[in-house]
Amino acid sequence: MDRYGTKDADKDAWDNVQQRFKCCGIDGPNNWQGKLIPTSCCREKQDSGETESAVCKILQTKNSYLSTTGCYEEIKMEVQSNAKCLIGVGIGIAFIEVVGVVLACWLAKTVKSGGK
Considering the domain 8-82, what is its CATH architecture? Predict the structure, then answer.
């Protein structure tokens, strides 16, 4: 967050996370204290479904247009909801590795014995 305004890569990363997860800052918008709150913290206006970027910039000190949840909790929930899939992929990769080692040992034994 400290490098948000200095590097484009950091700015783009924070903007993408905050827009995708509809969150703001690490624990909430207060993490941007002393800095201009990015428009990526703005949520859609309830009645129109459009992002009011200009209004959000003006009313940054009010929470009416800001996402109030922090990105840490949102990302944590996303990882927890996909944990079973991640564990399954990890077990699948480990199984493929074990099969590869067994086949390599079998090939080495076959080559050593002269293919008999």
Answer: Orthogonal Bundle (1.10)
